[in-house]
């Protein structure tokens, strides 16, 4: 394969591409994400973006860290957004690289709205979200026909720093057969209590998947009522996804994951895609 059998959009100067990098494994980058990395003048990236993904950036690209991790000093959201606008107005090709999917608990919509209001042209490149792809790396499907006709994504952490108060816990607890929580470790005991008080079976299956799709991936499963204790005992740290529901039971048979050797060279298949991408870049 010397060239990709289809064309990818050109990354024009003055544009911002808002790109999802997936939950960890750089192999989960989309072709559009790899293409954008190869062409960007500046990459503004978040804390959860894997170094392996950044290694695909054009060597001349400027890499700007805009990470936010709970409790540590970090750039303010308006500063990040303003710098994206300023860089675009300078005529740069600006890649805003975010963990997972930019539109799932990632403030991508806020950034896109600011770009839109400032008249900056932008493109959104979806990514694999941790609550689906990260769980898949733990052998936990988001849905199966036997277990759930619905799945709910919930944040365990509102902008106030507290458990979001807009959630109707009894309805969530009784109405959603599978619930996937992002940013939920800090308030896990409260979340578990609210689910059980809201009518969820305390013996329902539950799991925490930390650093999913990275060599540090760790998974803990326990009945819902015991999950908090298990997480403390195992010393599980963020980032982590919490999942409640019977799809967790599939892990017993679907745990396919083994970590890739940390320093493994890119596989032939990856090289082929990247070489094809270079050919496209030369042609374009
Ligand atoms: N936009 C991201 C979510 C950003 S919010 C996405 O679509 O995945 C940050 C939260 O995402 C973390 O607190 C954690 O709950 C989850 N997360 C992101 N990457 C993760 C990973 N590799 N493993 C486990 N959880 C992850």
From TrEMBL:
Keywords for this protein: Cobalamin biosynthesis, Methyltransferase, Porphyrin biosynthesis, S-adenosyl-L-methionine, Transferase
UniProt xrefs under PROSITE patterns: SUMT_2
Pfam families: TP_methylase
Transmembrane segments: none
EC number: 2.1.1.107
Domain Tetrapyrrole methylase: from-to ranges: 16-227
CDD domains xref list: SUMT (cd11642)
Molecular function as annotated in GO: uroporphyrin-III C-methyltransferase activity
Example GO biological process: siroheme biosynthetic process
Pathway noted in the entry: Cofactor biosynthesis; adenosylcobalamin biosynthesis; precorrin-2 from uroporphyrinogen III: step 1/1; Porphyrin-containing compound metabolism; siroheme biosynthesis; precorrin-2 from uroporphyrinogen III: step 1/1
InterPro entries: 4pyrrol_Mease, 4pyrrol_Methylase_sf, 4pyrrole_Mease_sub1, 4pyrrole_Mease_sub2, CobA/CysG_C, Siro_Cobalamin_biosynth, Uropor_MeTrfase_CS
NCBIfam families in UniProt: cobA_cysG_Cterm, PRK06136.1
Family per similarity comment: Belongs to the precorrin methyltransferase family.
Record protein name field: uroporphyrinogen-III C-methyltransferase
Lineage: Bacteria, Pseudomonadati, Pseudomonadota, Alphaproteobacteria, Rhodospirillales
